[in-house]
Design brief:
By secondary structure, the chain is α+β, with helices and mostly antiparallel strands. It contains 26 helices and 41 strands. Strands 1, 3, 4, 6, 13, 14 and 16 form a 7-stranded antiparallel sheet that branches. Strand 29, helix 10 and strand 30 form a beta-alpha-beta unit.
């Protein structure tokens, strides 16, 4: 039987391979009409009422505004007209540019004035260079003109940087896998016309009337150096027909000798974002063949997909002449949709057809000749020597459909709320099946409104079909949405009993909206060639895939796939309580940086469950360092003598200064410190801007503000969310402590504690906040709970999974209590994950060296940027290193809110028996809110129960009344000026 096993395995592999490689090549002769963007009636303004770029430019062009055609209008950066108080700026001569430049601001704003010679559309061109070296994010500024945003998207203007692999060719590990190179920034001056490839392939057009105007640039994340600013005429890009007539002529034959050169995509000259990365692709004819190993041989479409991400390559041609361009690519990321790239040759788009050039869906790496949809190859006139080719992810053609869907979702929500007010039905899908409705009388025009929404949804699907000349997964989903509306329109009088279909449809549409802007495309190589050259096009076929799979199968019998056999027995052992993706990146960075710097070998292994650490302790098989632990585990280990006191290391204070002292309270026990924080999660106030505006409400700043807005929300069938089990902030904001200073007994037997407990319970008994909300995120998206306090995970969910309300929600610090000085005190506890050294480790100094490296700002920042760039925003690494957190690429405006809330971090120390605190507080809450027991009496019962358990645990640990756990005091918020790198 054993002799048959290899044959059986090969047969199974062959069947599986055949199943996946055989695909339908059926074609259709259907031609889909191409709709104009205006036919979609796209959303005109954001949640603040600022019009979008598409609406702004269309309205102005309709009014007859033309492009300016005169000479550039220069603005001297050192000749600024105003600057915000406290903004740090400086001017001086730059010897590279040989002129005066301005540096800054990193916060605040700076203004310049200029005179426009005539009414028209203009571009804004800026010479710029970085100030902060190796900051991972682009430089972001908000732009206003004459005191107002010209359009919504001007709230974030991106000045990209240039990056490249530091080590080329890539290094290899002990078993032959390539190690991804560290990245380095290519500094220096750049010139750009302000552009946003999510909304326009060409530079943004600004309307200036004749006369004086003011430009204000407000810093959003970091400073930059400003060279000359120029107000310029938009460049008229010729059509290909015009380009060919001008540059090439009408000849049909070209006498150049056959010549071609291949440019490997992974050997790029620079890229605009760290998130853009090379990848390892494994199929026949890929170049180069990985031969069973990890070889970074393509530009990875999973990591080159966001609008504005650019990659540039260099090539050289042997003589002046005519050339063609082939691109070997693969893209099946968008469900049969096109993706788009704007293509530059030597920093210019040669002709209009290279704006948002489509690349069709395919299922393998295929060689695509750059040309028209009719099959005509594009010809390029190139001079002898070096040239650059740059491809930029472009989603501008999809912007009208995105705005249209946002508008449709908004209209569906507003319609749903009107229906719920009319029916009084604020449930999920209850309705009153015994009641009959005459909707024509009760809600005149309802059918017409739904018909209009359905027609706009159909138009959006038709627009996308016209772009792709194909029915895509997205448009099929939209058609399912129109089917839901058709079902409602069959009997409008039954709509009050089908209100659950409205949120269902909104969620269905939102699922597809975010995917529209993702334009992933994997590129293997580019070929520049003369028209007569026909280099061999290596593409995978069924005939080549089967032997390729078989070869890789047999490689598994003799290739090594782990490094345990390579003599790393003396390596530092690190266990990571996270997924494999996190551990793999950590190992990669250790191999790139930590081991070369220190000579310390490291093995990283995943720990699926933190309880495995407890079992390993019992079995005597522990790692040296454990990462990703729950925040209570280090002190729990410290109580049992199983964790290392980090204050034993000479440079502990220097390392500890990287973190918020309020967070470090979680790791203090008996005057020792037993862990360092890795990540943190903090509370934030979330609110829906459009709903608050429609009700005339302001987001609350204090708990008193929350009390005042509740009647208005509840009158409109809306709610406010706060986790009923979260009590810590109320105590600390009122100046109450949860434990006595010696850590041996509870501390909430004070007047301040009784006041805090009453404030907490009053929210649910007096102000009727919902006591249980299984999914605040869903309620917030649907709008029936337009405000609430939730943690950082909700913030990420909204960024990633709520495109239908993008621009319609914002964050503020959580509400607090005003003190005697008028300062709003916002104390709250942060959730942490922890890094700990085990007491049984025989490599404590090496382990501490690792934690020193791992928790440093630069490493944490690089790790965070890499995680997000490799796997998406949902993997954002919310580092506890305060300097790194401030430098992460946060969206516009959010970082100030996040920094303000993190000033007020005040975690509850862990003490013997402290695990009873949450339990007893929950019991006390139930007694007061549910059973109506007076707050003081209920809290006193909790005090007695917790004191009893703490005493029992102290006896178990052999602590006496003379022991002083000396809990760290904290009465001042964190000062951002003290952060350490």
């Amino acid at each position: 039987m054993k002799s048959w096993k290899p044959i059986i395995y090969l047969a199974i592999i062959a069947l599986v391979a055949a199943f996946y490689v055989v695909r339908s090549r059926g074609s259709t002769d259907s031609v889909f009409p191409v709709l104009a963007a205006e036919a979609l009636e796209p959303k005109g303004a954001d949640g603040d009422g600022v019009p979008y770029y598409l609406e702004t430019v269309h309205a102005l062009k309709t009014a007859g505004i033309k492009a300016y055609t005169g000479p550039p209008i220069p603005i001297d950066p050192a000749g600024y007209s105003a600057v915000s108080p406290g903004a740090s700026i400086s001017s001086g001569r730059d010897y590279e540019l040989n002129k005066e430049v301005l540096s800054g601001p990193g916060s605040g704003w700076v203004e310049w004035t200029f005179d426009a010679p005539s009414d028209g559309f203009y571009n804004i061109e800026v010479e710029y260079a970085e100030v902060e070296k190796n900051s991972s994010s682009s430089i972001l500024y908000a732009l206003t003109v004459d005191g107002a945003q010209p359009f919504s998207e001007s709230g974030t203007i991106e000045f990209v940087k240039r990056w490249r692999d530091k080590t080329v060719p890539y290094l290899k590990d002990e078993i032959g896998n390539e190690i991804r190179s560290m990245q380095e920034e290519i500094g220096g001056w750049q010139t750009t016309r302000l552009v946003n490839y999510a909304i326009s392939s060409e530079p943004l057009q600004f309307h200036f009337t004749k006369g004086r105007h003011t430009l204000r640039f407000t810093a959003l994340n970091e400073a930059m150096r400003w060279g000359e600013i120029r107000i310029t005429a938009p460049v008229a890009i010729p059509s290909y027909e015009e380009y060919r007539a001008d540059k090439i002529g009408v000849e049909t034959g070209y006498m150049q000798a056959e010549w071609h050169t291949r440019v490997e995509a992974e050997r790029y000259s620079y890229k605009s974002h760290l998130s853009t990365q090379t990848g390892s692709h494994n199929e026949p004819e890929v170049s180069p063949d990985p031969a069973g190993r990890i070889v970074y041989n393509v530009m990875d479409g999973n990591r080159w997909k966001k609008p504005g991400e650019a990659v540039s390559w260099e090539f050289e041609v042997p003589e002046n002449g005519i050339y063609e361009l082939d691109i070997k690519y693969f893209q099946h990321f968008q469900g049969k949709s096109n993706v788009y790239r704007t293509i530059y040759i030597d920093d210019q788009v040669p002709f209009q057809e290279l704006l948002h050039t489509p690349f069709a869906y395919n299922s393998k790496l295929e060689v695509h000749n750059l040309g028209s949809s009719e099959g005509e190859s594009y010809l390029f006139r190139l001079e002898k020597g070096k040239h650059t080719l740059r491809m930029v992810v472009d989603a501008s053609l999809l912007n009208p459909s995105l705005l249209a869907l946002q508008s449709i979702v908004s209209d569906l929500y507003n319609l749903e709320q009107k229906l719920r007010k009319m029916t009084g039905d604020y449930g999920e899908n209850a309705g009153d099946i015994n009641r009959t409705w005459d909707m024509q009388a009760s809600f005149p025009g309802l059918a017409q409104q739904l018909t209009g929404i359905r027609d706009r949804l159909n138009a959006t699907a038709d627009y996308l079909n016209g772009l792709n000349q194909n029915r895509t997964d997205a448009t099929n989903s939209l058609k399912m949405g129109t089917a839901i509306l058709d079902d409602l329109l069959k009997n409008p009088d039954q709509i009050p009993n089908k209100l659950g279909k409205f949120p269902d449809l909104q969620l269905r549409l939102g699922t597809w909206m975010d995917a529209f802007l993702s334009g992933g495309m994997t590129v293997d190589y580019l070929v520049v060639r003369t028209p007569s050259a026909k280099p061999e096009a290596g593409e995978a076929t069924l005939a080549s895939k089967l032997p390729y799979i078989v070869t890789n199968f047999f490689r598994t019998f003799y290739l090594k796939y782990d490094t345990k056999h390579l003599g790393k027995e003396d390596a530092l052992e690190i266990w990571v309580g996270r997924g494999r993706d996190y551990a793999n990146l950590l190992q990669e960075m250790i191999d790139q940086s930590f081991t070369p710097q220190t000579g310390i070998q490291v093995n990283v292994n995943t720990m699926p469950d933190a309880n495995a650490l407890t079992l390993s302790n019992a079995g005597g098989d522990q790692p040296d360092v454990a990462l990703g632990l729950p925040q209570d585990m280090p002190v729990d280990y410290a109580m049992r003598g199983a964790a290392v006191d980090l204050t034993e290391f000479s440079d502990y204070k220097e390392v500890a200064n990287r973190f918020n002292p309020g967070a470090m309270r979680s790791y203090v026990y008996n005057q020792g410190v037993y862990a360092l924080p890795e990540t943190q999660s903090y509370p934030l106030l979330f609110y829906r801007k459009s709903i608050f505006n429609s009700l005339g409400l302001e987001p609350p700043d204090t708990w008193e503000d929350v009390h005042k807005l509740m009647p208005t929300l509840q009158e409109n069938g809306l709610g406010f969310y706060h986790n009923a089990k979260d009590f810590v902030g109320f105590f600390y904001q009122n100046g109450a402590e949860l434990y006595a200073a010696d850590g041996l007994r509870p501390g909430f037997d004070t007047v301040q504690a009784y006041k805090a407990f009453a404030m907490w319970t009053d929210l649910y008994s007096k102000y009727d906040l919902p006591r249980e909300v299984p999914a605040f995120f869903q309620h917030f998206k649907l709008g029936d709970m337009p405000a609430g306090i939730a943690d950082y995970n909700t913030y990420i969910q909204l960024l990633v999974s709520a495109p239908e309300i993008r621009g319609d929600w914002a964050i503020k610090p959580m509400p607090g209590i005003k003190d005697a000085k008028g300062t709003v005190v916002r104390w709250a506890a942060n959730g942490l994950t922890s890094a700990m050294i085990l007491r049984q480790s025989e490599r404590k100094q090496e382990a501490w060296a690792f934690l020193d490296w791992w928790t440093s700002a630069d490493v944490q920042l690089q790790y965070g940027v890499n995680m997000e760039s490799f796997y998406g925003m949902e993997y954002r690494w919310n580092t506890a290193n305060m300097a790194a957190m401030a430098r992460m690429p946060w969206p516009e405006g959010d970082i100030e809110t996040i920094k303000e809330q993190n000033r007020w971090t005040r975690n509850v120390p862990f003490v013997p028996g402290g695990y009873y605190l949450s339990r007893e507080m929950e019991f006390a809450w139930n007694r007061t809110v549910v059973e109506k027991l007076p707050p003081k009496e209920s809290l006193d019962q909790a005090y007695v129960s917790l004191e009893r358990e703490m005493l029992r645990k102290q006896q178990n640990l052999k602590l006496s009344d003379n022991d002083q756990l000396a809990l760290p005091a904290l009465d001042q918020p964190f000062d951002w000026g003290t952060i350490q790198r």
